[in-house]
Structures are given as structure tokens and as C-alpha cells.
Amino acid sequence: MRITKIKLKHFRNHSDTEVEFSSGINLITGKNGMGKTNLIDGIHYVCMSRSFATASDMYVVEQGNSGFYIEATAEGSIRSTFTISCSYSRGDGKKFEVNGSPLDRLTDLIGRIPVVVLSPDDKKLTNEGPAERRSFLDAMISQVYKSYLNDLVEYRRIVRQRNKLLSVRNMRPDVIRMQLEPWDAQLAKSGAKIIDRRRSVLARFSSFLEESYERISGIGLKPGFEYKTIPGLEEKFGSDEIENVYLSLIRENFDKEIERQITLAGPHRDDIVFYLDDMELRKFGSQGQHRLFALALKLAELAYFSDVLDDLPVFLLDDVFGDLDPSKIIVLTEMLKSHKGQSFITAANQAPFEGLIPFGNEYSNKKFSVTEGPVINIEN
Predict the structure, then answer these.
(1) Domain boundary residue among 256, 290, 307?
(2) What confidence score (pLDDT) does residue 230 get?
(3) Which contacts qualify for 374-380: CB closer than 8 Å, 24 or more apart?
């Protein structure tokens, strides 16, 4: 997929910005605070329905306004040109349209324009809690498999309903157990499909991670991971067998869940433990190893999407080159040039890329500079 044009109105510091992009590498430079990240965050909104830079929609509204508007034009090798727009107001929330027709659900947006984001916050993937890794995994799989996203939405709804029942006070345990039974069956069925899909995707993803880490690190350590989910599962188990094991565990946990008033087991508590050789990265990895592993994860995601999807993903790299030494910059830019899809790079200046990325009318790469206003200047 390619984003050919974007319009931003009252989005962060972009009052009224319109930019046309190239199909290859788009290098966006400028001083901090000028709006570089905001520009590619607008792209992320029309791909994933949310910001990658902040947790709340209200924080991206330009000061003094009550809402924002984004419109992007996109095209792909198997899809004709189409537009996606996002409008947000503090009273009405977000609304998305494709070619002028409203989307009934935000989930209908995910996967239309597959996207991978590489940013300094990626260090959270390896050194913070399980929620960061689940979010990464869910976002990746949801862009490939629509059914997975639907299962995930349904599973989260069931967990909320179960937790409401578990938190009811002054109700006998046997009554709660009886009311939980239909929810338990649904939880096990929905959760089993999620676990089964996660395991199959991760099995395929591992080879891309090994290749990406080897290329970016240049050292002999082998990356790996362990998917930690409900106990008692064997590798050969399919969805039906996972469902039976999960349902048994739910019933075993009843007394503990009554005491703690929450659902204690399932995909919402899964984790991925990362390793370099036999060393657990989160506990023993150096800062540099964390940085390279997180970078390899996102490059592996890009490679995985490129392998399984009909249309290539859009790659957003936000202010990541400043933390890399010159040798790693060369490796990463070479990988970018070999990626046949569209990429967006934000950086403080062009110096790290001089002589590495070709620009000019004969190339499908383009340079932009962002100045106060913000004003977007095309430099080639």
C-alpha cells in the first residue's frame, strides 16, 4: 500500500496541511516541535484508528479547537485508489469514512492499510510488562486476520461481563457459579481461538526475527521467545483441545476468582518472554541489547507482513536514527532501500542519510523539511 496524499486540519500543530508523498522513502526533517511526528501520526490514525504517540484522542487536537480532521488518499497493487477520512470532536468522538461512506465499526478500518511503526517507545516491548507485548502481538495479527480482531473484541467483552458478575457483592457463590456457566463456555471458545492463532503466527514469525536480528546486530547471538499462555497445552493441540483445557482451568479457578473478583486466566494475561541465546532479555539484557532486539522485532514485523499480505505495508520510522551508531544506520538504510513498499522517516537533519539514500527526479524517494507554522517544503 501507498499513501499518496494526506490532509491534516487542527491536528496537533497542523492547522491546515496538505502533502503529497512519493512511493518510496519519504525523509521528513526539521527541528523538534515543528510537526514531523505529527505528520506521520496522522498516517497512523487512518491505518489503525489511533495515535502511536499519545494515549488519548483529545490530546492531538490543536489548541483552541474542539476537533480535528484527517484525510488520506491511498492506493495498492491490488486495490484501486481510495480515501480514508477521520473526523473527531470532543462531543461526538471519532468517525471514519472510506470513499465518503461511514464505517460502522472501528474494527472495519484495521488492515485496509497495513502499517508498521518504529519509534523510541519500542524499548517498552522488551523491558516493560506483558501488556506491551500483548498489544504488539494483537496489533500485528489483527492487520492480517480480520477474524482474529473480531475474536479479540468478543473475548474482551466476555471478560468484562464475567468480571462484573464476579464483583457482585452479597450473592451466594453457587448462584454466581450458575450465572457464570454460559460466560465460561463463551470465554473458553473465544479464548482458544485467540491462543491458537497467536501460536501459529509466532511459529512463523520466529524465522523473520532471527533474520532481522542477525542483519541489524551483526553478532552471533540467536534471538528467541517463549509464548506463555494457560498451562497444560501441548504444541499439537488445536483450537478444540485448547478450549477443553481452558474451560477446565476456568472451573478450577472459581474460588480464587470469587476472592479476587476478576478473571484470572486467559489470553488477556499471556506474555512473551524474549531471549538472546539462553539469556532472558528483560532480566539480564543490556540497554543496547534491548534497543537492538526491539528494532529487530519491528523489522521482523515488516518482513512478516511483506511475506503474508497481498499489499506491502507502510513503514513509519519516527526519530530512531539518532540512537544508532553509523554502522547500524548503514544497515538499516540498506534494509529500507530493499523494502519495495513505502517508508516515512522523521529525523532532526539529513546528515545521517547523505550518500546512503538517493534523491532526485529519477528516484522514487523524496525529501521534505518542516519549518515553523508548520510549513512543509519539498526539497527535490
Answers:
(1) 307
(2) 95
(3) 374/13, 374/14, 374/17, 374/30, 374/34, 374/35, 374/38, 376/17, 376/19, 376/39
333, 260: one domain: no
Which residue, 273, 307, 341, sits at the end of a domain? 307
Residue 277's domain spans which residues?
122-307
Q: What DSSP assignment string belongs to 288-342?
A: HHHHHHHHHHHHHHHHHHHHH-SSPPEEEEES-GGGS-HHHHHHHHHHHHH--S-
> Among candidates 228, 9, 30, 17, which has minimal Cα distance to 133?
228
- Looking at the fold, whether 168 and 314 belong to one and the same domain comes out as no
Within 10 angstroms of residue 55's Cβ, the number of other Cβ atoms is 8
Q: Which CATH number do you get for residue 28? A: 3.40.50.300
**pLDDT band (50, 70, 90) for residue 380:** low
Whole-number Cα distances in Å, 98 to 101, 109, 113, 126: 5, 9, 12, 36
Residue 105 has pLDDT above 70, yes or no: yes
Q: Are residues 166 and 236 in the same domain?
A: yes
Task: Tell me the per-residue pLDDT of 244-277, one tens digit each, with 9 for 90 and over.
Answer: 999 999 999 999 999 999 999 999 999 999 999 9
3-state secondary structure of 73: strand
Residue 228 above 90 pLDDT? yes
Q: How many domains is the chain partitioned into structurally?
A: 2
Q: Could you give the 3-state DSSP secondary structure of residue 219? A: coil
Residue with cell 529500507: 336
Please check whether residues 282 and 265 belong to one and the same domain: yes
Q: pLDDT digit string (tens) for 131-167?
A: 999 999 999 999 999 999 999 999 999 999 999 999 9
Q: Note whether 78 and 226 are same-domain residues.
A: no
Tell me how far the alpha carbon of residue 373 is from its chain's centroid.
30
